[in-house]
């Protein structure tokens, strides 16, 4: 039995550790050959909240809620199961359509045009999964964190690196507007751009490191 957190500070700490634990789970799962499904999304949520808030960890919400600073109203809680089952069918189709993607992205004798086109398809799937979660908002809390980690699971499964979309302070509005743009116009471009930027930031770091290593040898 997990003891309930006694203070707000303790709760925050447990949630922060939960996110680290969930990121590790994502990394390990991405490297495995296990199939990604909506159940995996629930597992990510469970990893985040199992110490901080065990009652909601990995479970769909049983109440209706609003999203702070957003006009998007998440669906009635009684619809979540069906909606997530629909997403599951779509997800499996999209994953199947990408079954050669990892080989192409990691492959040695593949044209850059083909790699680029495949990376783009992977990023679109990551954005779609991200938004599917935040739109339905299936959990009582932690939908954003779960969605961002689920997007990383897609990126990492196909040989890319997990990113950190900036959602705090001055970056908060841009992230929220990117989601609102999908709500209103089914336009994924702003969210896809955020993912590209996150990747660029990570890969630039990697490239600089490798270049440095080469120079010193
Ligand atoms: N217009 C919108 N449409 C869909 N989803 C949205 C919209 N605005 C915000 N969201 C999502 O809702 C999340 C907030 O919901 P929730 O509190 O359940 O997640 P969280 O993980 O606790 O929050 P945070 O992302 O701030 O850590 C935001 O992070 C974002 O991902
Ligand atoms: Mg929250």
From TrEMBL:
Molecular function, one GO term: ATP binding
The Fido domain, residue ranges: 36-197
Pfam families assigned to the protein according to its UniProt record, in alphabetical order: Fic (PF02661)
Keyword set, alphabetical order: ATP-binding, Nucleotide-binding
SUPFAM superfamilies: Fic-like
Key word Nucleotide-binding present: yes
Residues binding ATP, per UniProt: 141-148
Catalytic center residues: 137
PROSITE patterns: FIDO
UniProt xrefs under InterPro entries: Fido (IPR003812), Fido-like_dom_sf (IPR036597), Fido_containing (IPR040198)
Membrane-spanning ranges: none
Top-level taxon in the UniProt lineage: Bacteria
Protein name, UniProt field: Fido domain-containing protein
Source organism: Candidatus Lloydbacteria bacterium RIFCSPHIGHO2_01_FULL_49_22
């Amino acid at each position: 039995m997990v003891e309930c957190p006694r203070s707000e500070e303790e709760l925050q700490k447990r949630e922060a550790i939960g996110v680290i634990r969930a990121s590790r789970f994502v990394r390990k799962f991405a490297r495995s050959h296990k199939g990604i499904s909506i159940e995996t999304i629930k597992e990510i949520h469970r990893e985040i909240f199992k110490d901080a808030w065990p009652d909601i960890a990995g479970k769909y919400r049983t109440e209706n809620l609003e999203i702070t600073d957003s006009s998007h109203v998440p669906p009635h809680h009684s619809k979540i199961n069906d909606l997530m089952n629909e997403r599951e069918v779509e997800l499996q189709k999209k994953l199947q359509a990408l079954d050669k993607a990892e080989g192409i992205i990691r492959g040695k004798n593949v044209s850059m045009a083909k790699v680029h086109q495949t990376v783009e398809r992977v990023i679109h799937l990551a954005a779609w999964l991200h938004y599917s979660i935040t739109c339905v908002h299936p959990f009582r809390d932690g939908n954003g964190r779960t969605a961002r980690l689920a997007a990383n699971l897609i990126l990492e499964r196909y040989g890319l690196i997990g990113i950190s979309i900036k959602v705090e302070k001055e970056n908060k509005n841009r992230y929220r507007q990117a989601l609102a743009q999908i709500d209103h116009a089914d336009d994924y471009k702003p969210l896809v751009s955020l993912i590209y930027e996150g990747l660029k930031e990570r890969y630039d770091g990697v490239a600089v490191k490798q270049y440095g290593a080469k120079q010193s040898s």
